Amino acid sequence: MGILSNIFHKIFPSSHPAVQTTPVTPGGSMQSSAPQAAPATQASAAPPAAPMEQIDVESILSGMPQAQTLNWRTSIVDLLKLLNLDSSLQSRKELAAELEYKGDTGDSASMNIWLHRQVMNKLAANGGKVPADLRD
User: Is the torsion defined by CA of 83, 88, 93, 94 positive or negative?
Assistant: First the structure.
């Protein structure tokens, strides 16, 4: 499981489609890791899927115990700490590789800013309600 998947698991409920997916593919899309179901028969046909419910990311993160002491709104390090995930430089470099960062990973300040924006963009693209000032 990739770091982005770990972030999704910490924010989205387990029933959310974003949690049912694998890490971002090289093209930037998410792939389902759920097993493919056999075609439904008339007797077991499921109702049509409902639109994906938006999850209020800001509300969830703001409600976490350490939210008031961590600057999660602008810092990828603090966001990872808030989610109880590894925020080490190595972990952030792995996240950068997962999200296909093209810059210099030795410039951690630029990388961190980029990572935070990309994580917020990915949350928004996968059903998260993320304030516009936290996205591109």
Answer: negative
Q: How would DSSP label each residue in 7-74?
A: HHHHHS-TTSGGGGBPSPPTTS---B-SPPPPPPPTTTPPPPPPPPPPEEHHHHHHTSTTTTTS-TTT
DSSP string, 90-120: HHHHHHHHHTT--S-TT-HHHHHHHHHHHHH
What is the rounded average pLDDT of the residues 47-54?
A: 60
Q: Average pLDDT in the 64-91 region? A: 97
Question: Global pTM?
Answer: 0.76
Under DSSP, is residue 129 helix (H, G, I), strand (E, B) or coil? Answer: strand
